[in-house]
Amino acid sequence: MSKPYHALPSHRLHPQTSCHHYNQGLPEKVGLDNPATDAMTDLKRVKAITVDPSTPIDIALQKMIHAEVRLLLVTNDSGSILGLITARDIMGEKPINHAARARIPHEAILVEHIMTPSEQIQVLRMGDVLRASLGDIILTLKEANRQHALVVEPAGEGITAGNEIVRGIFSTTQIGKQLGVEIQPTGKVQNFAELEALLGKT
Fold first, then answer.
1. For the chain, how many structural domains are there in total?
2. pLDDT at 167 over 60
3. Domain extent for 64
4. What's 95's domain CATH number?
5. Contact, 75 vs 52, CB < 8 A?
6. What is the Cα–Cα distance from 156 to 177, expressed in whole angstroms?
7. Rounded mean pLDDT of the chain?
8. For residue 189, what is the enclosing H or E element?
9. CB-count exposure of residue 121 (10 Å: 0-12, 13-18, 19+)
10. Which residues sit opposite 124 in a β-bridge?
11. pLDDT for position 146
């Protein structure tokens, strides 16, 4: 025999009640010698934000704003990664140049027109990341003049066995937030003794 159900008591919402903010488990503050994974968005813990290649870029940008990210993975119907697109791509010169070449209005520009295709994406391997410090990651991004880096690992068993799967994402915005410095798109930094004199390795 099933137990009887009971309604829970209700209470008035307390003044100045705030909303719980999702935390993927990364430490709020880090240093250059912290393990690199302390600043990696781990896609085993956080859902990857993806976009269809036929999406207009303005809608893709709105998706970034709503998800509070600056990079979207471009995927097909089967989930395979076709490329990536960043806020920098959308708000930079790429759309202007493409519209001029293709002679189309801005609203007709799609993600596939300005994304970085998969064959041009440089990735880091999870095995190397596990042995790296945060300073190593910053130097890697700086030397490549990139704001983001994808981290891959073996896909494991199943139909994708033998292939690789994206495990994580590094972002200069996320790293700068945890370090308490501003890392600009140009690779320049502000404070933390100019990021320890640009890591003391240049």
1. 1
2. yes
3. 36-199
4. 3.10.580.10
5. yes
6. 33
7. 85
8. strand 189-190
9. middle
10. 151
11. 86
